[in-house]
Amino acid sequence: MAEALELHTVGDLLHHYPRRYAERGELTTLADLPLDEHVTVVARVADARVHTFNGAKGRGQRLEVTITDGSGRLQLVFFGKGVHKPHKELLPGTRAMFAGKVSVFNRRTQLAHPAYELLRGEEGDGEPAVDSWAGALIPIYPATVKLESWKIARAVDAVLPRVSDAVDPLPASLRQGRGLAELPDALRMIHRPATKADILDARERLKWDEAFVLQVALARRRHADTQLAAVPRVATAGGLLDAFDATLPFTLTEGQNKVSAEIFGDLALEHPMHRLLQGEVGSGKTMVALRAMLAVVDAGGQAAMLAPTEVLAQQHHRSVVEMMGELAEGGLLGGAEQATKVVLLTGSMGAAARRQALLDLVTGEAGIVIGTHALIEDKVRFHDLGLVVVDEQHRFGVEQRDALRGKGKQPPHLLVMTATPIPRTVAMTVFGDLETSVLDQLPAGRSPIASHVVPAADKPHFLARAWERVREEVENGHQAYVVCPRIGDDEDEKKSGKKGAAAGEDGDKRPPLAVLEVAEQLAKGPLAGLRVEVLHGRMAPDDKDAVMRRFAAGEADVLVATTVIEVGVNVPNATAMVIMDADRFGVSQLHQLRGRVGRGSAAGLCLLVTDAPEASPARGRLSAVASTLDGFELSRIDLEQRREGDVLGQAQSGVRSSLRVLAVIEDEEVIAAAREEAAAVVAADPELEHLPELRIALDALLDKDRAEYLDKG
């Protein structure tokens, strides 16, 4: 159990809840079993036949059993010596639970050598009676190849008598006030329900446990943050910020003003700001962040902006310097009186430029620094770091943010920005670990983006039409991006050499399309005569910068690139984007990429090219992306498909979730109510001295890794 399911204690086992329940009279639907997954099904034997065949080792026997649930059929196969017992037991009409991995052979779904448990009304042959399977509702547990559902059920039977020893984390007043079942009763009901109502009552109670204990962890962290001292950074009148606002050629949106006011309010406090700024691609988050940085510089501090890639750091640096004009020329002739210096710091800078940047930071000459991970290195020292802005939070590990925060004499204020609330961010947001600001209006002058799925395998003429559309955009004086998942250089070949063999065994799944190959094919074929350039992450930084500058200046028509263009790249004249193998990108990534077009006055077009079959989940995801431009809506779709990941841990997708019955999207109300209750409990008793059971539950939830993760924020 420890090895297969990480169940180490009686408590772990009791919190390993059934995934679903089969009813004795009801049969499982065999028609929609997922391929390559381990499943447990309840079904009836339709027929069983032994076939003799001549194999490499002489004559052999194969038992084929067909089971049915009344609507679909499924083949079971047993070979060699393994045929005797099932041949005797799996007679037509017999009902049983079968567990195994779903595979396809000769175009038919099958389970090879499944484990099975007969379901009978009376004892016999040493098999358990159906009645020992908890009355009418048979619990089906999340199981593995080595540990079938019914073995887990027997182990649960063995420990259920001890359920009264379970430590209840919910304070009695909360439990009674909300009319929730006691914990021992809830555990009995979820494992051995007599009725469906038992399951609902048990789940309601166990959801509260998860939501409340998590919320207490987050509330204690918020409480601890308010105990940290930070230098208040109050914007002063007549400084950089006012001078900057006076030069703006447009007025800020209502949303930008509101969010700026929230941020300025936080910066003025004596404990560190922890704020998440969520905004659509192109809603003007960078402008809001820049104004916050200028306010900190006015108050005598420095501000650092951390970007995930060099391309993006350079882009941010260029656009900040352009927006500030002479206000960014501190110490230079022609610089404005209130000006400061804005420096760039990336890993590939030359030694002299790097030395100068480090000097400007330590002396305080530079009020604003924009950089990549290079900002985190030990050599980097600040004069007085007051604000850290992290762009695209999901690209940075907690350790990296933590290292940057450690650069201040006192903890600096922290502003985290994201354009697509990826599932884990959504989860954290719903769990209220950061104060959240939302920008949901697009600034004036932004154009709508039309998105369409191009099913290249089913309808090749759609792909041909896509390239015609790109030519039309270029003929109208615009530019286009083509995005591919892979680069296709020697490095790729080395990696795919190993993977290629696996791909071959896996059927005929081709490797993802590559930038270098696609660019060559387009330049010779459907886009012949257009100026096609390439951009990818393994190019030298100067080459990347030169390509981006040429594209921005309109000296190239089509840029074939990897996802290096995903965030922050701003070329208003680019109106079309074709994403090849779009099913190989995540929902949030597609949304980010699409945000690169439609940034000017002309409408944007995004074509999602895929070979995925029509009914596949991948096509469903792409249709969802094509159907809405709302990043918040997409993040919900993404979350429903991927699960929330370990809300407190490092895992990004749903493999290792500390949530067992709580679903972030469906249970927002429970989470919000639990947050209020947790805040009240922590305000009254921050150390939980009067709630020892809650402390025990917290310690169990927050193993060492998770506790550190929470502490670092």
> Low-confidence stretches at least 5 residues in length (pLDDT < 50)?
122-135, 498-508, 650-656
Helix coverage percent of residues? 25-40%
Kindly estimate the percentage of residues that lie in beta strands according to DSSP. 15-25%
Mean pLDDT: 83
Total strand count, please? 21
Helix and strand composition category: alpha/beta
Largest β sheet strand count, sense and barrel closure: 7 strands, parallel
Q: Distance N terminus to C terminus?
A: 32 Å
Q: Per the principal axes of the C-alpha atoms, what is the gross shape? A: globular
Q: What is the CA-atom radius of gyration, in angstroms?
A: 30 Å
The number of distinct helices, counting runs of at least 4 residues, comes to 24
Strand order of the largest sheet: 11-12-10-13-14-9-15
